[in-house]
Design goal:
This is Cytochrome b2. Keywords: Signal. By secondary structure, the protein is mainly alpha-helical. Helix content is 31%, strand content 5%. It has a 3-stranded mixed β-sheet with strand order 1-2-3, with no helix packed on it.
């Protein structure tokens, strides 16, 4: 009885295992092939989240590994990539976009502390807690920001201010 339970458990695990392909190839390696190691590429050349893997060439391996690794065998990370890959995005071409609403209400972020700033511009596209932002993401507090740069959180705050994001 016990051996059959063990066999069924192992068989279920083996059948449930499937190969994992990391992020999609965005061609960032070709775009950044002439940038020497230890030099940061321009942020404007990053077109997708996988492109931030270019930090591997800039950060010491210990620091990059700290940011890159996920908890619990990266199950949640891998699951999110697999689920997102199931969606097919169909581009709409030759569609009139002159009257498209450019701001997106944030219904899932009810309260965010925002530093007062006079640098807000009129071309913001994201609204959260009544404030317009220039990007649909924000920088949250994180431990070990000094692994990314010596300025740590102060550098993140300055970069967010310069980029007009939260």
């Amino acid at each position: 009885m016990h051996s059959s339970c063990l066999f069924l458990t192992l068989a279920a695990t083996a059948f449930a295992a499937r190969p994992f392909l990391n992020e999609a190839d965005t061609g960032i390696e070709d775009a950044l092939d002439n940038i020497p190691a230890g030099t940061l590429p321009p942020l404007t050349s990053m077109v997708g989240l996988p492109d931030f893997g270019a930090a591997r060439n800039y950060l010491p391996i210990k620091n990059y590994t700290y940011y890159r690794n996920g908890a619990a065998g990266e199950w949640s990370y891998r699951n999110n990539l697999e689920v997102f890959s199931r969606y097919r995005l169909r581009p709409r071409v030759l569609v009139d976009i002159t009257n498209v609403e450019a701001s997106l209400p944030s219904v899932f972020l009810p309260c965010i502390t925002i530093l007062s700033s006079n640098k807000w511009q009129n071309n913001n596209i994201w609204t959260t807690s009544g404030h317009n932002l220039s990007a649909p993401f924000f920088i949250s507090p994180a431990a070990r920001a000094d692994y990314g740069h010596v300025d740590a959180e102060a550098g993140l705050a300055k970069g967010a201010y310069d980029g007009n994001i939260l």
